[in-house]
Structures are given as C-alpha cells and as structure tokens.
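Researcher: I've been going back and forth with a colleague about how Transcriptional regulator might be arranged in three dimensions. Neither of us has a model we trust, so I'd like an independent prediction. The organism is Paramixta manurensis, in case that matters for your notes. Sequence below.
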Amino acid sequence: MENKDPMIELLSSLEQIVLTRDVVKTTPVVKVRPASLPEPQRLREMTGMEIEEFAQVMGVSVSSVKSWEARRTRPSGSAQKLMQLLHSNPYLGRQLLD
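Model: Here is an independent structure prediction for Transcriptional regulator. You can compare it with whatever you and your colleague have in mind.
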C-alpha cells in the first residue's frame, strides 16, 4: 500500500471540485416537454372507469368530464397533473375510489 501526501490528496480533490463546478456552469439547460397526455376519454377507458367514477377521482362534476371529452373545455392544471399520475399508474384511480 502506498502512502500519499495528504496535501496532494487535498489539492487533487479541490481540483476535481473546481473542474466539476465549471462543467456544471457550462452545461446548457435543456427543457424537457412533458409526455403528452392521452385524451380524457382514452385515459378514462384505459383505467376502466365509468364517467361517474372518473369524475369522482378527478374531483369534478360529470358534466366537466363530458365537456373535456367533447373538447369543449380543457382540464385545469391540477386536473392535468392528476391525469398524468393516472396515466403513469392506471390502478391509482381504483385506489382513490376505495
């Protein structure tokens, strides 16, 4: 086993920190678009829910869901977030109903 000078080790570590920090500063920020959501009707059908159940899970009225499905209105931002969760985990809707 080789004994290394602690000062050399410290300087090497500091050099790595500085180099890493410089790389992070120069790395461009890339914005990632969220995956597109399926239409509310497709999502509802994918989760196996009736309109009444889907409305209950989403915390909205049945008429709101029908309006989304007819494309007369768009879901709110929070409803879209919940739809993303349902899309990533289709069983979540059933769990929320229980």
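Researcher: What would you highlight for our discussion?
Model: I'd start with this: The chain has a mean pLDDT of 81. After that, consider the following. The domain at 40-97 is CATH 1.10.260 (434 Repressor (Amino-terminal Domain)).
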